[in-house]
Amino acid sequence: MRYGYFDNQNREYIVDRVDTPVSWTNYIGVNDMCAVLNQTAGGYSFYQSPQYHRITRFRPNAPMESPGHCVYLRDDDTGKYWSISWQPVGMDLNRAKYTCRHGLSYSKFLCDYQKIRAAQTILIPLNEPVEIWDVVLENDSERPRRLSVFSYLEFSFHQIDMDNQNFQMSLYAAGSDYEDGVIEYDLHYEEQGYQWFASSFEPDGFDCLRDRFLGSYRDERNPQAVERGECFGSCGTTGNHCAVLQKKLTLSPGEKTRVAFFLGEGKRAAAAPYRKKYANPENIDRAFADLAKFWDDKLTRFQVQTPNPGMDTSLNIWNLYQAEVNIMFSRFASFIEVGGRTGLGFRDTSQDAMAVPHSNPQKCRQRLMQLLRGLTSEGYGLHLFQPEWFDPERKGERQSFQSPTMIPTPDRSEIVHGIKDACSDDALWLVGSIVEYIKETGEISLLNETVSYADGGDGTVYEHMKRILDFSGREIGPDGICKGLRADWNDCLNLGGGESAMVSFLHFWALDGFIQLSRFVGKTQEAETYAVMAKAVKDACNDHLWDGKWYIRGITESGRKIGTCSDREGKVHLESNAWAVFSGVADGERGMLAMDSVDRYLYTPYGLMLNAPSYTKPDDEIGFVTRVYPGVKENGSIFSHPNPWAWCAEARLGRGDRAMKFYNALLPYDQNEKIEIRQSEPYSYCQFVMGKDHPAFGRARHPFMTGSAGWAYYAATHYLLGVRPDFDRLTIDPCIPKDWAEFDVVRAWRGAVYEIHVENPDHVCKGVKRLELDGSAVADGIPAQQAGSRHKVLAVLG
């Protein structure tokens, strides 16, 4: 069963059956003003912070995500009314045609009902704090039509705690009024707590009080004002507030008209320039075109044409888009994370920054610097923190809640609680991300920049990296394996003072990247010092973690091994085995055996399970993972984030057929015809898919905001297609299915463009036997070329 299809030409996913099993979301805005919307215009907007500056209300985890950003239409001759988006009115889908087109930073809602064609496009222009609802109406009947158009949104009380709990305060501190066509919303307890709402026309009516507009014992499905065809002109102080502007108009047969609504940040006076500018629809079209160019500039930096259409659609459009959304929004604005906690997760943001330095180097660099300031002088990262706490331009001053764009800054003693709060993997990801950023940009000077530590003092970026590696080198157990501490990526595996196989493999990977970097910049002494550490890590892993056919997951504080051949539950774990191979710790035969075990025990048609068999009996020595339902999240689900690690591992082993088998199993595109099973959107990787030990096997949950996106993109581009930057050259090292005869990649790198054609006449999975640059043979990769130039690269496998 399918609910929509991919329109690659327009870079849209078209939902032509809008009653999807769950909300299918999209992200609007790329700077300060943002919105999360679903296929029926449900969702919410925020300014800078979804926790401290929510603009519109949202009721999460409800049968219908609402209130949303909707436009009502009313036939003033018959009294019938409906909404351009299917919800909230919810017309019979056998009588009305509804479509949603999710695009890159915009969503368009279309309706054909009662011979009125309507479209509502929601977008936020680049670099402007205004949300635009562009509405087009067309009379498709043979008689004049008298219509009323009503906007509707409900304002938030800004701070999530106020929005959800503190009604004794918020209900009596919110006010609204209307003047000169503009609604102004005011949160009296915030000095700058204002929003405005306006339109491209002179309104014929308005309402600012939600309960007056809706009426008693009603909701957004049947507002009293819409039903009667007239607004009440309500506004005032206290209560719940909304933004309703009404326009009456008459359309002749075949006539089309266009109106717009605007939601903005600030007092009423701030509306004037935007209202004037966007009253001209040509300027809306220009803003829309600017968004298209913004994304075109990003997407064209890596384009592929392969025998796998799902891979092409994903890598060329949706996978990069999702990875970019993660680096822009962090992880705390979605229909799942609804803003109750915000900031940067250290491990999450580090990995997000590793995925897209080619398409968003400025944002990746900003995130790296924020993370470096969130690192303690001991070498561990603050697991979750607000980057504003350490912004040097704010000089650590304490902020109140009086300004909605400012987040309160605690004292350092309130921020850094010591190693008991440290996650053993967090900071190691940052080492890899810095290495990848330098490979992409060539910005070696970054290493010499001085950056503060979260608990005081400062050091260069290079020194920060050494402290991270030294911390993991110190925090080891009796077998020389890194301790698990508070968590080791798997937040439900609570090893504490026990030992984590995954973190030791991750430590080796970070060391390897750092050693390569040190040698490249001429720091040979440091390279040799850390090479000794790396050898000790590798030896300890192979001496203590190998179990005959795979690598174990860890060792508890009491010395009990987790993930062994003798275990009945939690027998094989994905993270440790994939990282053993991908990191380079596992030599050939052990690597083959480990990944063979992954395939045997963990593979499903929907991806690789995190562990198997699932735990069914609570065991607190292993951790909370044993108290999670079998087949759900960390306990035997297809946890998407680590799946790409297995793709990378198989690529390192040279087994392209299996790597692509694993890739295709998780690929959302390939589940477009199975939505009755998947339920979630087929254009977004989800955090997890129910595993085979759960009755809903194959059901996907928690879309968009997941490290799966960045890792899927990184693994597919760098290791399956094998086009990855190095410090001074572009490496071409594909690992593909044997039956692929050829594929093409266009890759921008350091200002030059490389048109890469890969041929596979011998039908092998891996191994480049000939490499050419502009017709001349080269070895060991493609040297960096002059910025602004364009080149042809041929790679022949064999």
UniProtKB/TrEMBL annotation:
SUPFAM superfamilies reported in the protein's UniProt record: Galactose mutarotase-like, Six-hairpin glycosidases
Entries under InterPro entries matching the protein: 6-hairpin_glycosidase_sf (IPR008928), 6hp_glycosidase-like_sf (IPR012341), Gal_mutarotase_sf_dom (IPR011013), GH65_N (IPR037018), GH94_catalytic (IPR033432), GH94_Enzymes (IPR052047), GH94N_ChBP (IPR037828), Glyco_hydrolase_94_b-supersand (IPR010383)
Domain Glycosyl hydrolase 94 supersandwich, first and last residues per copy: 11-280
Segments forming domain Glycosyl hydrolase 94 catalytic: 294-722
GO molecular function: carbohydrate binding; glycosyltransferase activity
Signal peptide: none
Keywords: Glycosyltransferase, Transferase
UniProt record, GO biological process: carbohydrate metabolic process
EC number: 2.4.1.280
Protein name as it appears in the record: N,N'-diacetylchitobiose phosphorylase
